[in-house]
Protein 1
Amino acid sequence: MSTFASILLYALTASAEHHLRTNNIAIRQNGNTNTSILVTNLCSETIYPAILTQGGTGPQNTGWVAAPNTNVTVQVSEDWQGRVWARSNCTFNSNGQGNANGGGSQCTTGDCGGLLACKGPGAAPATLAEFTLTGSDQQTFYDISLVDGYNYPLAIVMQPNGNQALQNIDPSTTNPSCVASIGNFFTGSNYNPYTNNQQFLGTSSSQPLPFDTKNTASSISSWCPWDLQVNPPTAPGNGVYPYPDDNIQRPVYNPCTSACVKYGQANYCCTGSYNNPNKCSPSYYSKAAKSACPDAYSYAYDDQTSTFVIPSGAGFQVVFCPGGKSTNIIGSKGAGSIKHQRR
Ligand SMILES: *[C@@H]1O[C@H](CO)[C@@H](O)[C@H](O)[C@H]1NC(C)=O
Ligand SMILES: *[C@@H]1O[C@H](CO)[C@@H](O)[C@H](O)[C@H]1NC(C)=O
Ligand SMILES: *[C@@H]1O[C@H](CO)[C@@H](O)[C@H](O)[C@H]1NC(C)=O
């Protein structure tokens, strides 16, 4: 591994310290991979989904090119632990490598050591779908994480797979969505995807998802704190942004780095003397992320409220660019509504 890649991996592992915390599951190669993760690209552009296995048996396919409106299903073990994200704007050669044989970054966000098939975590910022399929008490834990920043809108749809206990759960309490990119956001006031008996993210009008009603086109265009924008607008001719910054038109595709990733400070990352829920409060980044995506996990000690829990046995669909609006399940139904304990 090149020095660059080692440093990259180190930096990412460090920033990933506070993700979904569960018991440790060893990575295996030979588990029965009988659980499906369906990855759907509803973005209008080609994306490059990626999968990192942190426990259990992961899929052979760890990264691919996904044209708009395509699905790829991968198989993992029932005790799999890992994450799914998407990379933007990659350029790989026919071997799935970058110019420097996989040494340099080949994607503008989410890159994993320049390889199409990832062998490690992705570079921040990236919106993550995180899963621990069999955690404590035979339960599945999952979340949408913005802890390492945000690049694409993402939704998670629980798939009961014929399991009666899972089928009985109201799907409007299991399928969170985070839409914080203006290009994928419904700008009207009443978002209703259920007309003409339409289904949306595994739900129907009889058990509709509660959507966020606070955000507007303006708030979604400018939620990312100015200093954390990956693509800040070009400064005008004199090189000085007029004040206030927020009146400047921002680019449509504008990923957002988290304050922890950008500055690495203990108070933003909840590390060192801040490694304690009573000491580490949400940063300006996590507040902004939570207001754009109320059901997402935005900083280290937010996981108690934003981790979904169901009895294990489900498969999942991860949808990039689901469209519409972010869900607000926790805000409208309460933090208890997303904890479905095994009975
Ligand atoms: C999946 O495989 C595991 C391990 O072999 C097994 O215990 C479980 O019953 C299987 N699940 C299904 C749905 O087949
Ligand atoms: C992708 O899978 C979803 C869920 O099963 C299905 O509704 C959709 O039609 C599929 N899309 C394509 C292009 O196959
Ligand atoms: C993708 O990369 C090309 C070439 O570097 C650049 O011109 C373009 O703006 C990038 N697009 C996005 C969405 O980042």
Note: The CA atoms of residues 233 and 250 lie 5 Å apart.
Protein 2
Amino acid sequence: MRVLLGLSVASALRLALAFVIDTKRATVCNGRAELCNRSYGNITFIGAHDSFAESEDPFALARDQDVDITTQLNDGVRLLQAQSHMNNGVLHFCHTNCILFDGGTVLDYLKTVKSWLDAHPTEVLTLLFTNPEGVSIPGVWAPAFDLSGVAAMAYIPPNMPMKQSDWPTLGELLGNGTRVVVFMDAGADGADGSVPFILPEFQMIWETPYGFTDATFPCSVNRTSGPLDTTDHMYMINHSLNVDIIFSLTVSDPIEASVTNSVDSILANAYGCTQFANGRAPNFILLDWVDVGQAYQAADILNGFRT
Ligand SMILES: *[C@@H]1O[C@H](CO)[C@@H](O)[C@H](O)[C@H]1NC(C)=O
Ligand SMILES: *[C@@H]1O[C@H](CO)[C@@H](O)[C@H](O)[C@H]1NC(C)=O
Ligand SMILES: *[C@@H]1O[C@H](CO)[C@@H](O)[C@H](O)[C@H]1NC(C)=O
Ligand SMILES: *[C@@H]1O[C@H](CO)[C@@H](O)[C@H](O)[C@H]1NC(C)=O
Ligand SMILES: *[C@@H]1O[C@H](CO)[C@@H](O)[C@H](O)[C@H]1NC(C)=O
């Protein structure tokens, strides 16, 4: 009942917002006029892996970022990835578990995202969350999206699953006030009651393998699911390099980040994957230490804005 009410409030807000924004259609989308007319499915976005796992303490082993999500967004990150865990009955973002690294509640995280979106009205953002404990989408996730206000900005596809070529342009997403696209790796296939804006990731996005210790980033289609062909999916490359430390524990390597996040390394990885995507560049490039290196330059090249 509470969920139904929450969703209908969200729909009403979405309509109101669409009405307001439609009167001043965006002429710059995600910082570029050219992107307004380009399909969401045909753009390369930079993503922050474990976006909440931020610490300047070099001894915090489970950290993957050294700037907070607001700084990541200000710098140009347009996909935020995060791993959830229940902690004393409340949904948190934690890395591996909440003792190792507790990034706070999902609700607080989403409120921070909402504030940033409010301050940046011509930006389209993707959220990619993982749900390793199979926490209820309608019971726990949806209320956090509703309470934070992010649900009212979330895109609901007209049909499912959406092919890569089906996605609206950034201008259309902005014009409709539906400029947040939300994917979940598990539990969003409708099995436990569907929430229409929380989309099943692997039906529409495939991923390369993760947990690499090989600096050449050989490409393969690792996680995906039907019914669409692989080439009809968008795709994400996990471009982060782990190092083996003692007891075969692998951790993200901050020292190598300037090499890993260089234009050369990112482009080599991207071009190694185009064979699986009818020659298309990756839609999402997921990075650790996203403030280090030349990620945005690499994305500009893949988007055709510089050579
Ligand atoms: C937008 O794209 C369509 C088809 O790709 C094209 O026909 C149209 O001229 C473009 N509009 C602008 C304003 O660039
Ligand atoms: C977008 O389309 C162009 C032209 O087909 C292609 O070169 C580019 O790789 C595509 N990018 C993505 C992310 O699909
Ligand atoms: C925008 O909203 C209108 C009215 O609800 C709808 O018909 C249209 O399909 C929406 N466009 C996109 C790209 O979501
Ligand atoms: C790769 O991305 C997936 C999905 O978001 C995530 O679960 C995984 O931890 C990532 N791994 C690395 C090393 O980037
Ligand atoms: C995906 O990658 C993991 C290692 O990261 C590997 O164990 C697994 O077999 C791969 N699965 C597929 C379908 O390639």
Note: Residues 168, 172, 176, 178 surround 2-acetamido-2-deoxy-beta-D-glucopyranose (ligand 3) (CB under 6 Å).
